[in-house]
Amino acid sequence: MSSRFYYASWMINLGIVFLLIGLYMTYSSKVGKYKMRSEIIQRLSIKGNEMALDVGCGRGLLLNGVAAEFNTGKAYGIDIWNANDQSGNNYNAVMRNAKIEGTESKIKVINSDMREMPFQDGYFDIIVSSLAIHNLKNNEERKKALLEIARVAKKDCKLAILDIAHMEYYVNILSNQGFDIEHIDKHQFQIFPPVKVLYAIKK
Fold first, then answer.
1. pLDDT tens for the 203 residues of the chain, in order
2. CB neighbours of 187 closer than 8 A, spacing ≥ 6?
3. Cβ atoms within 10 A of the Cβ of 140, count?
4. What is the per-residue DSSP string for 170-202?
């Protein structure tokens, strides 16, 4: 009886853990990611006439959120849409979401690798990236992406990177490329898994 009791108790506790994780993931998908987006956009203090870039735009959540703040500005999104990184991840999904959010005329989406961007030096006033750079296979590849971000950033460009790992590495590279690291929001539990958000300005 004792061993059966402990086995049953262990299974119940395991079930509770999976239930809580499932609820957390649902909250993240339906509510948390939008709250996180709003916090990032508020922190960027968007004027409305900027040129913006979303590096690894996925299905366009952050891209469309930034674009919604524009009147004469333009938001570019780049991605290679690897389905292994995010399900339902493709150009058409971005444009469907843009239509829902009313930002179709304010965005331009390009199939491009973040390690070799098709933009001239110093082109963007705002650059954002969400859960994308960590997907590159090693730090050397991540460095290439960060150097490209630095290259296409204007003086005083505002940068926000949301990611689950490698944040200290990002800080080191960006600091060496002339960015002032303003703040890092740590342990943001609104998104599953928990993330950090780095805010910086290019000087």
1. 566 655 566 666 666 655 544 544 554 455 568 788 999 999 999 999 999 999 999 999 999 999 999 999 999 999 998 766 566 689 999 999 999 999 999 999 999 999 999 999 999 999 999 999 999 999 999 999 999 999 999 999 999 999 999 999 999 999 999 999 999 988 666 666 788 999 999 99
2. 194, 196
3. 8
4. HHHHHHHTTEEEEEEEEEETTSSSPEEEEEEEE
135: helix, strand or coil: helix
Tell me, rounded to whole angstroms, the distance of Cα 117 from its chain centroid: 17
pTM (2 decimals)? 0.86
Quick one: the chain helix, strand, coil %, rounded to 5? 45, 25, 30
Cα–Cα distance measured from residue 155 to residue 71, given in angstroms and rounded to the nearest whole number: 22
Nearest-angstrom CA–CA distance, 203 and 194: 30
Q: Confirm if 107 and 74 have CB atoms less than 8 A apart.
A: yes
In 3D space, the residue among 198, 196, 114, 201 whose CA is nearest the CA of residue 161 turns out to be: 198
The end-to-end CA distance of the chain, in Å, is 69
